[in-house]
Amino acid sequence: MPDPIPTLDSRFSDPDTQATPWPTTRETLENAQLFWITTVRANGHPHVTPLVAVWLDDALHFCTGPAEQKAHNLTTNPHVVLTTGCNTWNTGLDVMVEGKAHRITDRPTLERLATAWATKWDGQWQFQATDTGFSHEASATALVFAVHPTRILTFTKSPYTQTTYNFD
């Protein structure tokens, strides 16, 4: 995929600022240790929870237990927002990835993802690929999802900018 074109939203940006370059955004997605995922419950209410994720093949990947709330939510509504960044006012970059989550069950892709998880966290997250997702820690199972972005928003602080990348 060619690099997406950043668009600065001047309504929410300081004067004389530039859009966040895609390599900066991609690096943030690749290196972030924690994301917050927002899913939609069957009753339409949001559900937010932290998780770890891996950026691979132009998508953000995460896993969850089949009995967890987010797994239930995704069966009725695949729309998600994954957010990462920092909780400071004057420094840092916050990134929000919008898209639809879809299950990954392709064994070669799952094996690549298991390797990516282990590499990103120096072996702290060990998964084995199965025909339905991941297994780990005494045969616990996890469903694996990919989110190919439809839109990414970035927010820099001091100077303040809002950048949009559309993937339609």
UniProtKB/TrEMBL annotation:
<dbReference type="GO" id="GO:0005829">
    <property type="term" value="C:cytosol"/>
</dbReference>
<dbReference type="GO" id="GO:0070967">
    <property type="term" value="F:coenzyme F420 binding"/>
</dbReference>
<feature type="compositionally biased region" description="Polar residues">
    <location>
        <begin position="15"/>
        <end position="24"/>
    </location>
</feature>
<keyword id="KW-0560">Oxidoreductase</keyword>
<protein>
    <submittedName>
        <fullName>Pyridoxamine 5'-phosphate oxidase family protein</fullName>
    </submittedName>
</protein>
<dbReference type="Pfam" id="PF01243">
    <property type="entry name" value="PNPOx_N"/>
</dbReference>
<dbReference type="GO" id="GO:0016627">
    <property type="term" value="F:oxidoreductase activity, acting on the CH-CH group of donors"/>
</dbReference>
<feature type="region of interest" description="Disordered">
    <location>
        <begin position="1"/>
        <end position="24"/>
    </location>
</feature>
<dbReference type="InterPro" id="IPR012349">
    <property type="entry name" value="Split_barrel_FMN-bd"/>
</dbReference>
<feature type="domain" description="Pyridoxamine 5'-phosphate oxidase N-terminal">
    <location>
        <begin position="25"/>
        <end position="151"/>
    </location>
</feature>
<dbReference type="InterPro" id="IPR052019">
    <property type="entry name" value="F420H2_bilvrd_red/Heme_oxyg"/>
</dbReference>
<dbReference type="InterPro" id="IPR011576">
    <property type="entry name" value="Pyridox_Oxase_N"/>
</dbReference>
